[in-house]
Amino acid sequence: MKNFKILHKDGKARVGELITPHGIIETPNFNPVGTQAAVKALSPKDLKEIGVQIVLANTYHLMLRPGADLIEKFGGLHKFMGWDKPIMTDSGGFQVFSLGIALEHGSSKVVGKGDSEPRPRLNKITEDGVTFQSHLDGSRYILTPEKSIRIQAQLGADLIVAFDDHESSKHTHDEMLKSIELTKRWGLRSLKAHKTNQLMYGVVHGGTHKDLRVRSAKFTDKNFEAIAIGGIYGDRQKLCEIIDWVVPQVSEEKPRHLLGIGEVEDLFNGIERGIDLFDCVAPTRRARNGSLYVYPDRILNLRQSRFTADKKPIDPQCSCYTCANFSRAYLRHLFFAGEILYHQLATYHNIHFMTNLVKDIREAIKEDRFNKLRGT
Ligand SMILES: [Zn+2]
């Protein structure tokens, strides 16, 4: 693909450059998630200072509030949110379906588990698309492949995602087969509706069935210029298997994105198997919950009383603003006091951590020492 260049490989791990109208994304890379056109607690100035090269915004949230028409009037998402570097939007499908899957299996809750975002109430899936009720005011919407692509064109992200069906982990093989067939038809409609120069990812589904993943991967590779892998659930071992099934089926020269995955171990596992891009709410959500990354792969939980008088920074090896200036004890105090500053400083550190981790990984791949870095 002309917009994606692979510069070096170390085993299956690869370093490359994805060229977009708003700049180059060095791969492997991690997209922080800015659900509502903001990475929670960080300004675009912070993101640039950290070295973030791309953010992901959620189509579902933005179509409901403030609405794609309004964002378009401001010249698109880049201008609206004051971020002039690359942006990716998802198709909106995941949020629309995530509760639907729960409802299908007897839950009547309209709010997700833990601190998850409130979710929509799913009404109906038809050949045309998905009808759902907004989590904000209960109003009814329909999302179709054509509408998802039109909204993503209005938002104006550099990278977009085709509209896809979302399987349930409880689906039988036959149900899963029907789901990937629907994803194929919606994928073809998404392609037909695609009129911009935005790079569109097709999404590989098929749950934990090898034959379906292979089938979906072949279709996606034949029709799309960029490959996303979705519908991931289950344990780490299964995730590795799914990637190992999909990657050999897709062209070497297309970028590969693992949707919604991005804990440290997942990044290593994915990159080792040839994945280029990741997005995940983990670093921002963890920060808000007092859970902070320490190099290379430890988590420090500020809730623990042993940090009450700890003078050390979160991570003595970290060069970020938070670690250069503040102690664990101070951050723990801010956390329990509910200070807004806590969220800024903690999120700054966690996003800095992820950004530098992928940078270190890129350097290691370039020097053929990915496995050595992983072992440290
Ligand atoms: Zn730090």
Question: What do these coordinates show?
Answer:
This protein has 376 residues and is α/β, with parallel strands linked by helices. It has helices spanning 44-50, 59-64, 68-73, 77-81, 93-104, 145-155, 173-193, 210-223, 236-246, 264-272, 282-288, 321-325, 328-337, 340-366, 370-375; strands spanning 4-10, 13-20, 23-27, 29-32, 55-57, 87-89, 121-125, 130-133, 140-143, 159-161, 199-204, 226-229, 256-258, 277-280, 291-294, 298-301. The protein has a six-stranded parallel beta sheet. The chain has a three-stranded antiparallel beta sheet with strand order 1-2-3. Strands 7-8-9 form a three-stranded antiparallel beta sheet. The longest helix is centred in the last third of the chain and has 27 residues, at 340-366. The radius of gyration is 20 Å and the shape is globular. The model is unreliable at 100-115 (pLDDT under 50). Bound molecules: zinc ion. Zinc ion binds at residues 314-315, 318, 320, 322-323, 349, 352.
